[in-house]
Design a protein that fits this description.
binds zinc ion; 5-stranded antiparallel beta sheet; 5 strands; alpha+beta; 111 residues; binds guanosine-5'-monophosphate
Length: 111
């Protein structure tokens, strides 16, 4: 699989890892948009939310994102979990991922 995030899972491309379990991997975004900007991905390749069939997969990603936020110390202050899906939302890597953004106030509505 030539997917960038699958290569990070296989350690073929370096990344700053934050957490890992049997199903998910979390690592720092290479171009952070907030003091905490971590990407949480399922180890199983799924291109985007549009292709998900297993509710457990997204449930695991979401709760892993919650745990990362707690470990990063932003759970109390607040954080945002974002899944960009396809072109209009600006998805650039087609392996499902949740952005965990915290450590600053994020605006609403998002851009
Ligand atoms: P998207 O735009 O698809 O929602 O998010 C993709 C994210 O992956 C972007 O925030 C981008 O900065 C990040 N990214 C792209 N390439 C790499 C990489 O090689 N390593 C890491 N750690 N993050 C990456
Ligand atoms: Zn992949």
């Amino acid at each position: 699989m030539s997917c960038l995030f699958c290569k990070i899972i296989r350690r073929e491309i370096p990344a700053t890892l934050v957490a890992e379990d049997a199903h998910c991997l979390a690592f720092r975004d290479i171009n952070p948009q907030a003091p905490t900007h971590v990407l949480v991905i399922p180890k199983e390749h799924v291109a985007s939310l549009n292709q998900v069939t297993d509710p457990l997969l997204v449930g695991r990603v979401l709760l892993f994102a919650r745990d990362v936020a707690a470990a990063e110390g932003v759970a109390e202050g607040g954080y945002r979990v974002v899944m960009n899906t396809n072109a209009d939302a600006g998805q650039t890597v087609f392996h499902l991922h949740a952005h965990v953004l915290g450590g600053r106030v994020t605006g609403w509505p998002p851009g």
